[in-house]
Amino acid sequence: MSRSEHLAAVRAGDIGSLHSWELVTAVDGPGTRMTTFLAGCPLRCLYCHNPDTLRMRDGEAVDVDELLRRVRRYVPVFRATGGGLTVSGGEPLMQPAFLTRLLEGAKEMGVHTAIDTSGYLGRYASDRLLSALDLVLLDVKSGLPETYKRTTGRELQPTLEFGRRLADLDKEIWVRFVLVPGLTDAEENVDAVADYVASLGSVSRVEVLPFHQMGRDKWDRLGMDYQLGDTQPPSLELTDRVRDQFRSRGLTTY
Prior knowledge:
Layout: H1 3-12, E1 15-25, E2 32-38, E3 60-63, H2 64-73, H3 75-81, E4 84-88, H4 96-108, E5 112-117, H5 127-131, E6 135-139, H6 145-152, H7 157-168, E7 172-179, H8 187-198, E8 203-210, H9 216-222, H10 236-247
Parallel strand pairs: 2-4, 4-5, 5-6, 6-7, 7-8
Antiparallel strand pairs: 1-2, 1-3
Helix pairs in contact: 2-4
């Protein structure tokens, strides 16, 4: 198709930019999931383990109906395991029209739906999009604005507003918090995250994810400046302390 036709198809949600997809179990939501990684992200997290998903133009153009045919193949697996479709990235809300079409198509098959998002682009999530969602994996990367800015290069407030909107809609939320020694581990930062999460009535679990170096090779291959090369994974003692900070608010924490 011509460039103008392609752009019109993107705006309509017929075509999206896809990085990859995989089947995983008990990682990106309940049961066995088809996790679909869309290309493009407005954040520049220092610990990003998928830096190859940051630019939409680096993804593969995919027709929404083609992707839904892939989803349909695994419907028996989803039903047997209580799984479904999780759309991740990158940042799935970079492509709201395509995401809406994809989620609605999955719901028509009776598939459980989830997105993994920072919430930074939550203002682009229409009520229609949210109505096609069963679960939001909300990445709350910091509780202090200055730490969030250092970690992601962006502002914290849009994430906080999106989380409150989800809670007002009684949309189920799993919160994810990446624990990075020397970056996000300060007690006051974790307390700020925990206090915020405890204020959201629809959070059913919190996942504290210890920092790791598994994405470092991708940064090197892409010629990107990786600033956490000397950062070690958190100790068991530190990880337990942070999990206890969430649990002290009555939050189910892993």
